[in-house]
Automatic annotation (TrEMBL):
It comes from Suillus placidus. GO terms for molecular function: NADH dehydrogenase activity. Pfam families: NDH2_C (PF22366), Pyr_redox_2 (PF07992). GO terms for cellular component: mitochondrion. Keywords: FAD, Flavoprotein, NAD, Oxidoreductase. InterPro entries: FAD/NAD-bd_sf, FAD/NAD-binding_dom, NDH-2, NDH2-like_C. This is NDE1, mitochondrial external NADH dehydrogenase. The keyword Oxidoreductase applies. The keyword DNA damage does not apply. Residues 413-477 form the External alternative NADH-ubiquinone oxidoreductase-like C-terminal domain. Belongs to the NADH dehydrogenase family. SUPFAM superfamilies: FAD/NAD(P)-binding domain. Transmembrane segments: none annotated. Residues 38-388 form the FAD/NAD(P)-binding domain.
Length: 481
């Protein structure tokens, strides 16, 4: 069961990478026998990783290109960011499938649909870079992306069939300073950076030389974006403050404040109205301040400027205001795109559509980077994963020369959001069949069982409940990483 997101959710903001100063890109074919058809999957997220899991690896010559060598289980990232779960619980390594599958930790920068080639840039630290491991990371990553931005020698790959599953980036609405000074929550590295920052704020505020005003500023936690990601992170942070922080930093806990900002009149706009009101009431009772109809105009180091409020100092700012198109998708001009989301249009079999209106039989697009023409599916893991499953079935038939003409059908399994203190909301009111709404402890039980069920590997099926249990007994770990 997945949480469907009708409002856009945050995606990774990655800076536009400078054009590589590389001479000619080298062309590679994969090492698997040429007799098999080459299937290239771009992206190891909810869509791409599902295909990787389910594809017939004996019949296809599969190559995965992704700047990260792991799949991120996004629904549990907010829990990781506050230590309710450990980082290991929310990732699945892509390498699990190698050497059967060839994996390149790289960015795909250009697709030539006529020649059926891809131009890729390694997303690893450059070979010539000297220095310690941390210096290497610091030198090749930026605050917006914890992955090296594309370094070294470009290379080309050929494909027979291509799946585009590159997701989307975070929307910043070009608010100055967001990329430099805010935290995003898209993958496990972001979760780790946020967790470190939270503990930093308390340790800094604990120094005897600080004034109370400085302490309050450091312990002002601001979240911008009242969609499910912003709400769940606020709830998880509230749990942390009212458990371990209250126990270990009692006087500082009283100074800490959580504020959730949104430009819309209500939070959780994608949920049934009554559930949004339930969430707002719960947050108000818990002391989480909700500032709807508020516009952040500029962000600087440790402060932001809000139209309705003026200058707001903060210790941590988490930004989660929706999706912006992936630059790879932006760079494609030969295919039809959705006017608003700028995602690639596909037909009901998920094949991309050329500007001339023909479906390309060898290229499919799924997940947050794509929309079926004439249908509006939310940008969620639920949709990406169902499309991935559908496409893997189709490809497994294609490779056996069997027909697979059944169009993709989305089955809405409802929306869940955690609200803190073992309470949640569950919304299935937009589902076609059973219409249900649930709040409180029952919804929380649904939330936990849904994400436990969805967890992919046996290893994480053991780790996730183990950490839930350990942290319930011993409390969250406040070590700074
Ligand atoms: P992604 O999962 O984003 O994967 C994209 C992949 O492409 C990544 O591996 C990326 O590194 C790679 N990539 C990017 N650019 C390139 C390139 N140029 N070349 C090659 N690879 C590239 N949805 C729900 O349904 N329920 C939830 O509870 C839920 N919770 C969420 C919580 C958080 C914190 C976040 C951020 C999202 C959440 N979502 C949830 C939304 C869900 O995660 C996305 O809709 C889903 O990840 C989309 O899947 P995707 O495969 O299209 O993209």
């Amino acid at each position: 069961m997945f949480k469907a997101r009708l409002s856009v959710v945050c995606g990774r903001v990655q800076p536009r990478r400078a054009k590589p100063s590389v001479a000619a890109a080298r062309t590679f074919t994969s090492s698997a026998p040429r007799s098999k058809q080459r299937l290239v999957i771009l992206g190891s997220g909810w869509g791409g990783y599902e295909i990787l899991r389910a594809i017939d690896k004996k019949r296809w010559n599969v190559t995965m290109v992704s700047p990260t060598n792991a799949f991120n289980f996004t629904p549990l990232l907010a829990s990781c960011a506050v230590g309710t779960l450990e980082f290991r619980c929310v990732v699945e390594p892509v390498r699990r499938f190698s050497p059967q599958v060839v994996c390149y930790q790289a960015w795909c920068d250009t697709i030539d649909f006529k020649q059926k080639t891809l131009k890729c840039m390694p997303a690893t630290a450059p070979l010539e870079f000297e220095g310690s491991a941390s210096a290497r990371l610091a030198g090749t990553t930026t605050k917006e992306t914890s992955y090296p931005p594309g370094t070294g020698n470009a290379f080309n790959l050929r494909y027979d069939k291509l799946v585009i599953a590159v997701g989307a980036y975070s929307q910043t609405f070009n608010v100055p300073g967001v990329k430099e000074h805010a935290h995003f929550l898209k993958d496990v590295r972001d979760a780790r950076a946020i967790r470190t920052r939270i503990i930093d704020c308390f340790e800094q505020a604990n120094q005897p030389v600080l004034s109370d005003v400085q302490r309050r500023n450091l312990l002002n936690f601001c979240i911008v974006g009242g969609g499910p990601t912003g709400v769940e992170f606020s709830a998880e942070l509230h749990d942390l403050l009212h458990a371990e922080i209250e126990r270990h930093y009692p006087s500082l806990a009283r100074m800490a404040k959580i504020t959730l900002y949104d430009v819309a009149p209500n939070i959780l706009g994608s949920f049934d109205k009554s559930l949004g009101v339930y969430a707002e009431n719960k947050f108000r009772r818990d002391g989480i301040s909700i500032k709807t109809r508020h516009h952040v105009e500029r962000v600087e180091k440790d402060r932001m400027f809000v139209k309705e409020q003026g200058e707001v100092p903060f210790g941590l700012l988490v930004w989660s205001t929706g999706l912006a198109p992936n630059p790879l998708i932006q760079s494609i001009d030969s295919l039809e795109k959705h006017d608003k989301t700028q995602g690639l249009f596909t037909d009901q079999n998920l094949n991309v559509i050329t500007k001339e209106g023909h479906a390309d039989p060898d290229v499919w697009a799924i997940g947050d980077a794509a929309n079926i023409k004439g249908q509006l599916h939310p940008a969620t893991a639920q949709v990406a994963n169902q499309k991935g499953k559908y496409l893997a079935q189709k490809l497994n038939k294609i490779v056996k020369d069997q027909e697979h003409t059944k169009p993709f059908e989305f089955h809405n399994q409802g929306s869940l959001a955690y609200l803190g203190d073992w309470k949640a909301i569950y919304d299935r009111s937009s589902a076609d069949t059973v219409k249900t709404k649930e709040t409180g402890r029952v919804a929380w039980l649904l939330w936990r069982s849904a994400y436990f069920t969805m967890t992919l590997s046996i290893r994480n099926k053991i780790l996730v409940p183990t950490y839930w249990f350990l942290n319930w007994i011993f409390g969250r770990d406040l070590t700074r990483f």
